[in-house]
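User: Hey, my collaborator sent me this sequence without any context and asked if I could get a structure. I don't really work with proteins. Can you help?
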Amino acid sequence: MTDPARADADDGADVDIEAAEMIASLREQVAYHNHRYHALDDPEIADGDFDLLVREVRRLEGEHPELATDDSPSEDVGGAPSATFTPVRHAVPMTSLDNAMNDPELTAWGERLLKSLGGDMPSVVCELKIDGLAVSVRYEQGRMVQAATRGDGRVGEDVTANVRTIADVPDRLPSGAFGGDVPGVFEVRGEVYMSTSAFERLNEAAAAAEERLFVNPRNSAAGSLRQKDAAVTARRQLSFWAYQLGDVQGGPTLASHHESLDVLGAAGFPVNPNIVVLDDLSTVVERCAYWQEHRHDLDYEIDGVVIKVDDLAIRARLGATSRAPRWAIAFKFPPEERTTVLHDIQVSVGRTGRATPFAVLEPVFVGGSTVGLATLHNEDQVAAKDVRPGDTVIVRKAGDVIPEVVGPMITARAAGARPWRFPTTCPCALASTLVRLEGEADTRCVEPACPVQRDQRLIHFASRGGLDIEGLGERTVAQLTGAGLVEDAADIYSLTVDELLTLDGFGQVSATKLLDAIDASRHSSLPRLLVALGIKHLGPTAAWALASAFGSLDAVMSTGEEGLAEVDGIGPTIAASIDAWFSLESNRGFIEKLRAAEVDFRGEAASGAADDDVEQVLEGRSVVVTGTLAGFSRDEAAAAIVARGGKSPGSVSAKTYAVVAGDGPGASKITQAERHGVRVLDEAGFERLLQTGEL
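Assistant: No problem. I've predicted the 3D structure and written it out in structure-token form, which is a compact way to encode the shape of the chain:
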């Protein structure tokens, strides 16, 4: 008898539909919070919260390797830097840390450490994990020359002018701190944060001015540091804790981490006073438990404890993955739970029409922020938890990540409380019918003219994953559609300054800047354009495969379902979805409007065209990249393959020439490579392949 929660994949493997839906939901949340942070500068969760979302994706992918994908957030180190700031390539990568969520996971890390070192427990340094924004401050000949955010670990954002306004960060280094001349290069890693008292003063001022209140200290610190106007940053009273050295050239020879902290303190940097060196793991566990209990005793937010091997030579022996060092781990505090009143259950609609229920709560402070809304996922989840409007419910910000309604306090339920029923009409102005197809977990609005979907499609078109149009966020889209200035994304190309000046918040400068960003988007890459169209199942990896195979939007559009499915990395589901999208007259009309607006349908070099200046050593060959590479981002690896005449599909087949496996490769891709006898290369092998075309 077939389990209805499972189905056969194309390669014959079982796919757990429930897990697939959960992974898809979590990936959407990751994309959403990336957009809130990088595109809107209005994050709703802390960096640590975001990391835990990614951790859950990794856990599910580990349990279901057949569901892993190349573009999964589980393979990312951090967030892509914003186009708002000049990119900065870190001389020494700012890798993230692996997490331990409980004592057994922390103990397991310690046991791995012991095994790697032959049974000898090294001294470790325990530091508070400050809930702020990681930055790297670079000094040359003793003078600050640059400050950058972590970004994706390899490339961050230049925030030098803003960091200069932080009183804790010296502009020059005292020579006496180094027992001689200052190092030629001295790079300091640390955390920019906003103290709790400074945050309270900020919100008091906002309330007095009848302005929107800030959510929490961490988000306020991140938003303040990433201001375009450094004067705004200066008014926000940010602080800084130094905790690590990066690139250092010259200066004293150091043998341990605690020695480097001493040097940082002598050089004028604030070093957290709650740092200790410990010699056994049981004491480390006790230290973590202490700060878990006393986390709110401080005038700044912490969300865990960081444990690092002290001896620098031992660190070198242990090494690191491309994402995190093996010699350090972050112990994350467990979820916090509170009870509050569920006032209502409402439904939001996304760009594909999916209707998602959410809880409207009596605001409650939980997991480091005030929560007023919490996800309920879908109709089945609401029924399974049996939560009803008016209930007193348990709210959890799981791992300080996503607000979630755990369940009701049944004993507190009012007599006569009725189970919630999913609405039958869309909350949009058209009040169109909501439909749930048999066998699907999601309920959808199927009205193409739904104004909520229209706005979400436009927001997606302009998002960082799409054409990356700075300034065209949710608020501006709502203003444009509300004023009747645009009906779809193609209409943005005919906007004028005079039209924008009729909208609240726009002046001559901001209107001109938005139009310049819109104009620049006409010449984006073909993969970006394909993603921006919002075709179901068509993500960045598949878009690269299509761009490599066809070279233009017209060629993709004119190719039927069978032809699309023949492209490496484009399976029958994606091919059918693309073909169905282009078969709709309304979508073809939209494409023609883009053409009339002179949007480039071939895109720049990133569209997949081979580079005539590079020897075509991979001509006609397909090379699949999986996992994280130290020297290449995913796009850079694909571009390097395409520039040499090859293709970079998202899946492995018998036609694949080679699979390049970085750190954390997709297990399903490795399995497929073994099944088809395809060679698997490490990064060094990939570099040789790019040079010679040979395995």
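In plain terms: The mean pLDDT is 84. You can pass these tokens on to your collaborator as they are.
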